[in-house]
Amino acid sequence: MLPHEIRQKLTLEIAACEHAREKAIDVMYILQRHYGYLSDEAVHEAAGLLSMTPLELEELATFYDFIYREPVGEYVIHVCDGVVCWMHHEQAVFEYLCRKLGVGLGETTADGLFTLLPTACIGDCHQAPSMLINGKFYGLLTPEKIDVILEQLVCESCNPVLTR
Fold it and tell me: What pTM was computed for the model?
């Protein structure tokens, strides 16, 4: 069940629009942040708020790489598989991350820390190959650089006080 504060905030934002549909993506992202992913319950809640059908929202949600319809890890790694990253051997980045994390593409590590996903061009071509982790860019990737990034994230996860 959606907390009253979030429901109230969304209701006000939707009411400020000429057409409720204008806020569909924003509403899905807010619900995703609350639940950790866009659950079926969240789709139904969003549909009610936006006067849309769950199917209409499902169609939108499955179009966007950054809307997650299944649970994801604390850190979602989106590796760019655009043409420029491909030319800079992005496949080696996928292979390295799969080996390092012990998962396949689309999977989450057993500890729930990392989810590994491919994504279309992220617009960071001058630093190819590149990836996003929870929206933060990382480029000019090498196995060594990936190791440092992952180690930092594991440390932050184990001791969140250090990140404040």
Answer: 0.86
